[in-house]
Amino acid sequence: MHTLLNLAVSLSLASPLICGSAMAQDLCSGYGPQTPRDISQTFGSNTRLFAMAPSATKLNLCNIHTHTNAEHKGPDFTISAGSGEHGGYKCNESASLTAAELAEPGHGGGAYHGVKPGDTIEVHWVHSSCDVEPGKGLGSCLSDTCANPQLRVETQVFLVVNDPDALNFMDFSYQGNMSNGLHQAKTLPTGTGEPVVFAGSTTGPSYTEQACSPFQVTWSVRPQCAKLDINSLNVWAAVGNVFEEDHSHGVRQLVTAPELLAPIN
């Protein structure tokens, strides 16, 4: 989830709680289920339970951010991008893009950094049960009177291309949109498969299987990639957004230990 969990920066980038020695190879213990995961696998033996968050339509949108390469692994994003902060997974169609789709707009560069045509990104729409307004980082998902909200992240993996006929990110942006008194994205992606819903945590490169996230998050991850026009990401940054997002973030490596995963029902 975006490097977003730093109480001041983002649900994905928060400072980790280190379990034991920073150099220890043992899994963290005493934590709830972790994220990201392979959504095609339903196993998990973490038994720490928490109430799953309501649907996104019943919560306030509090943050939108992106990660370059998918943090999760799914049926349509299985190509490994390696380890570390810039690892993760790429969409299966990455190797079959046309020269036009891979062309850099304006001969390179743009208002939104850390993404180029041919890249895969994972977008997180973070929702909170608190009565809050959208803004920068996890701090926007909390308040003085609501320090332990229910959190839900709606997730879509995109293959970024230079093509005005591809999906437009501005259609999925916030831009002050309200619905039934709640802050909401203008729309969320559809047509990319039934979302896989499971219990997990926040993400981002600060966390590992030895340094776990303490936050409890309901995840809703769509299993198929969709093509997204890079020019629309640049517009999102150029016109300004309340989230102060102008670049794509790093990833947390896949969590595979059953002890750190919740079963998917």
TrEMBL record:
Source organism: Roseibium polysiphoniae
Source organism phylogeny: Bacteria, Pseudomonadati, Pseudomonadota, Alphaproteobacteria, Hyphomicrobiales
Signal peptide limits: 1-24
Highest taxon, organism lineage: Bacteria
Protein name: Cadmium carbonic anhydrase
Pfam family, one: CA_like
Keyword entries, A-Z: Signal
